Amino acid sequence: MTSYLFIVNPKARNGAIGKMWPKVEEEIKKRGFDYSVIFTKEPKHAIEIAKKEANNYDVVVATGGDGTVNEVANGLYGTGVTFGVLPLGNGNDFARGILFDDDYNRSLDVLSKGLTLDLTVGIAEADEDKRYFFNIVDTGVGATISVSSFTDAKWLRGFVKYYYLAFKGILKYRLVKTKIQIDDQEPFDCGLVILAAGVGSRFGGGFHILPDNYAFESDFAICYANDLGKIQTINLLNVLKGGNHLGRKNVHYFRGNKISLELSKPLPVEVEGEIVNFAATKVKFEVAPEKLKTIVPDEFIALKESRKKQVKL
Fold first, then answer.
1. How far apart are the first and last CA of the chain?
2. Cα(202)–Cα(269) distance, integer angstroms
3. Which residues of the chain register pLDDT less than 70?
4. Can you name the CATH fold of 122-287?
5. Closest CA to 135 of 115, 120, 118
6. At what angle do helices 16-30 and 104-113 cross, to 10 degrees?
7. Nearest-angstrom CA–CA distance, 40 and 45
8. pLDDT of the residue at 11
9. Torsion-angle region of residue 273: left (phi > 0), alpha (psi -120 to 50) or beta?
10. How many CB atoms lie within 10 A of CB 253?
11. What pLDDT does 128 receive?
12. What are the b/e assignments for 73-86, b being 16+ CB within 10 Å?
């Protein structure tokens, strides 16, 4: 019988997960899971738990939001143990990218069924700091806004909070002179507004910065915007949610395996809402050598097969 470890972040979703967990666990019991539960107590605790307990279970499940996903997956990477997700957070960008939804009953059905795919993983290096990412990594104005969310406007929630911080952050942000190199192409200079790379499509609770991008691809998508004024940057924010920014002035979209940045002044780097480095000047993102075996809905497997057929055609 398949054994599951649920690593639960009770503080995720502003503490709501801790309160709703007894009801969720009742559904786990109804389905007859062979399972254990460990609650996280502090940031990065999920990484430690996953590393320590991985070989004692067949599946380790990140139970929370995108930050919990990133921590558990970082702890599991390289162990060969199957990764699962029970998305109970606010944004759930990773989970939505692999076609989970916000109904935990359906998510438990997917986990019970146990269909898997090997998903591409990225490595983010920011000065001396390193972190694996499983959805999207970014720097520039987006990461700067994320940093401010830890301390500012705590009375706001969801998109209202994000838009408030975004407008405030854009008004303060100054273009950063940046040297960019994608794979082995010739490097070039620009005034960086935002750069995101990854294997998923959405970040920030639903902004589709890398549209039509999926973690079953062998490389990742890269999108950056440069040399935009304040009004242009605000307009960019407004079209990002629907993924309607591609083709706009000074917005660029590529596929690749590696991207390097040399920044003229320090910027934060974030992965799945977690800050890797608050003030990095030398940054590199690249595809990791190993993939992560992950439980996914059958719709995601069907999507992969349909994309393969399209490529053949």
1. 41
2. 16
3. 153-161, 309-313
4. Tumour Suppressor Smad4 (2.60.200)
5. 120
6. 50
7. 6
8. 87
9. left
10. 15
11. 96
12. bbbbbebebbbbbb
Give me the pLDDT at residue 313, please.
46
For residue range 155-197, what is the model confidence (pLDDT) as tens digits? 656 666 677 778 888 989 999 999 999 999 999 999 999 999 9
* Three-state secondary structure readout of the chain: CCEEEEEECCCCHHHHHHHHHHHHHHHHHHCCCEEEEEECCCCCHHHHHHHHHHHHCCEEEEEECHHHHHHHHHHHCCCCCEEEEEECCCCCHHHHHCCCCCCHHHHHHHHHHCCEEEECCEEEEECCEEEEECCEEEEEHHHHHHHHHCCCCCCCCHHHHHHHHHHHHHHHCCCEEEEEEECCCCCEEEEEEEEEEECCCCECCCECCCCCCCCCCCCEEEEEEECCCHHHHHHHHHHHCCCCCCCCCCEEEEEECEEEEEEEEEEEEEECCEEEEEEEEEEEEEECCCCEEEECCHHHHHHHHHHHHHHHC
Q: Of 312, 308, 309, which Cα lies nearest the Cα of 214?
A: 308
Buried b (16+ CB within 10 A) or exposed e, 129-151: eebbbbbbbbbbbbbbbbbbbee
Note the pLDDT of residue 244.
95
In this structure, CATH architecture of domain 3-120+291-312:
3-Layer(aba) Sandwich (3.40)
Q: pLDDT, tens digit, for every residue of 71-87?
A: 999 999 999 999 999 99
Q: Where are the domains of the chain?
A: 3-120+291-312, 122-287
What gap in Å lies between CA 174 and CA 229, rounded to an integer? 9
Q: Which of 245, 203, 194 is nearest to 224 (CA)?
A: 194
Q: Note the pLDDT of residue 273.
A: 83
Contact 272, 135 (CB under 8 A): yes
